[in-house]
Amino acid sequence: MGERITRNTGLLVEVLNVIDHLIADHDTALTALENHFHDRYILDAGDVNDVAAFATELRLEITEEERGTVLDYIASKGMVGLNIDIVENAINERFEDRFIEPGN
Predict the structure, then answer these.
(1) Please, which pLDDT band fits residue 79 given cuts at 50, 70 and 90?
(2) Partners of residue 93 on adjacent β-strands
(3) In angstroms, rounded to a whole number, what is the distance separating the alpha carbons of residues 88 and 103?
(4) Dmax of the chain from CA atoms?
(5) What's the mean pLDDT when you consider all of the chain?
(6) Under 8 Å CB-to-CB from 75, ≥6 apart: which residues?
(7) Residue 63: which of 102, 101, 91 has the closest Cα?
(8) Which helix (H) or strand (E) holds 66?
(9) How big is the chain by its Cα radius of gyration, in Å?
(10) Burial track 68-95 (b if 16+ CB lie within 10 A, e otherwise)
(11) pLDDT in tens, 27-70
(12) How far out from the chain centre does Cα 23 lie?
């Protein structure tokens, strides 16, 4: 793909790889995306596995279905990136009484 490397190149290349079969000219597609998002920073903040890992570390109970809800909540609040504090706040604000007592 193109040789121009920007703050978004890695993520844009990943997106293009997902839709590889739909793209005739990857270099042109990457250039178009780089130009469109030139003044922005696109961030892959994390995924449901990150939410689950942080919840486990925090000893907060969360179901597989609720992990996406937590990600949606984080996005709606404009929280950037996933870290243990953001996941803790999102779980506690979305779902009550999720702390897992030691030994349980």
Answers:
(1) confident
(2) none
(3) 20
(4) 56
(5) 87
(6) 45
(7) 91
(8) helix 64-76
(9) 18
(10) ebbbebbeeeebeebeeebbbebbeeeb
(11) 999 999 999 999 888 888 889 999 999 999 999 999 999 999 99
(12) 24
* b/e 36-61 (16+ beta carbons within 10 angstroms → b): eeeeeeeeeebebebbbebbeebebe
List the one residue out of 61, 7, 13, 77 whose CA is nearest residue 38: 7
Element (H, E) at 37: none
Backbone region of residue 84 per phi and psi (left: phi > 0; alpha: psi in -120 to 50; beta: other values): alpha
* Residue predicted with more confidence, 77 or 36: 36
Residue 45 and residue 74 in contact, taking contact as beta carbons nearer than 8 Å: yes
Of the chain, the end-to-end C-alpha distance in Å amounts to 51
**25: its two tokens:** 């000219």
Mean pLDDT of 80-92: 83
